[in-house]
Design goal:
heterodimer; A: about 0% strand; B: alpha+beta; Aminopeptidase; 2 domains; eight-stranded mixed beta sheet; globular
Chain lengths: ~80, ~260
């Protein structure tokens, strides 16, 4: 899966969680989205884990501050699996 | 583990234990974890002091039952020293990590300079009702929702002999807050916040430095705090060193 494909999937997930009108880039962070609170953060993580069939470890999760971090992690895990 | 590292955890847990003394807050100490939950929803609502024995079947059953029945709060805190055992346990019970605090400390013997306060800045200990209201206004706009930290709870906290709260006033208006808890072996700094309108102007730094100076005059105990990623740089500048991490988990009870 390319970086663009990963982003498109994550964008769709973010719209489901934060609302249809949510516009994101790789640089969008929790401080840019009002609804990105601790609850939605864990919903976002668990949804992405399910969608991409990956598991993030605790240090990876606490290092996530923006959408680009998810893409980096998923790319890294894809390489490990291939 | 050295003593300051240990104290960073002990002070936090002993601070939470203070809530056992407050009327109206329901706390529970199980063998392998402790819980603060409040039917009125007051702060804090947390599962803490989790030890590795929790993963034994006899404990696991009770814990899972309480979680699934909704009688436990949604936030849990785990410490770095047992995270390898506790993390899989919490995740298998529906908790996800969402943030971490850096346990930081200043060892005893560190010389702290008393900051020179400009004429228009003063630091006051919370005693009078007007200061309490201003302190609450800052904390509830930055850290805890107003519904979860009511004046009655703050009044009860500062009535505990080893807890003191301070307010930094700029031109007579409260802009920065701190709460100090002395456990006997260490001094913990909590609820450090600055009003949004005056952030990044050095008020929190002045307040923390003033309290550091005051506390180092009183005792030789280490001074510790639990910094969010945002706050770490400020505390490093004041001489705090990172020692360990605490991981915050949130129970995910939503069907996805």
């Amino acid at each position: 899966m390319t970086r663009e494909q990963i982003f498109t999937k994550i964008e769709a997930i973010s719209k489901k969680i934060f609302g249809e009108g949510t516009i994101i880039t790789e640089a969008t962070s929790s401080s840019d989205i009002d609804k990105w609170d601790s609850m939605n953060h864990v919903i976002l993580i668990s949804t992405i884990e399910k969608e991409f069939a990956v598991t993030f470890d605790i240090m990876e999760i606490i290092g996530i501050t923006k959408f680009g971090d998810f893409i980096d992690l998923i790319e890294k895990k894809q390489i490990q699996c291939s | 583990m050295n003593s300051i590292e240990k104290e960073i955890g002990n002070n936090l847990y002993e601070f939470y234990d203070q809530f056992l003394q407050i009327k109206g807050i329901y706390s529970e100490r199980k063998d392998h974890w402790s819980v603060i939950r409040n039917i009125q929803g007051a702060w804090p609502r947390i599962i803490y002091r989790i030890d590795t024995e929790i993963i034994k079947p006899e404990s696991t059953g009770i814990f899972s039952e309480k979680i699934n029945s909704g009688t436990y709060p949604e936030i849990a805190i785990a410490s770095e020293d047992n995270i390898q055992q506790v993390d899989p346990f919490l995740r298998s019970n529906g908790f996800y990590p969402f943030s971490a605090w850096n346990g930081m400390g200043i060892s005893n013997g560190k010389i702290i300079k008393d900051p020179d306060l400009p004429e228009y800045i003063e630091v006051v200990k919370l005693e009078c009702s007007a200061d309490i209201e201003q302190w609450l206004k800052v904390v509830t706009s930055q850290l805890i929702s107003p519904a979860r930290l009511e004046k009655i709870l703050l009044d009860s906290l500062i009535a505990i002999p080893n807890i003191e709260a301070y307010l930094l006033k700029y031109k007579g208006v409260g802009v920065s807050t701190i709460l100090v808890f002395s456990s006997g072996n260490s001094t913990g700094l909590y609820l450090i916040a600055t009003d949004k309108s005056v952030q990044r102007q050095g008020f929190a730094r002045i307040l923390v430095q003033k309290i550091l100076f005051q506390e180092t005059q009183k005792s030789i105990n280490p001074i510790i705090l639990h910094a969010t990623p945002k706050g770490e740089a400020l505390y490093s500048k004041l001489g705090f060193k990172p020692f360990n991490q605490f991981f915050l988990y949130r129970y995910l009870n939503t069907q996805l």
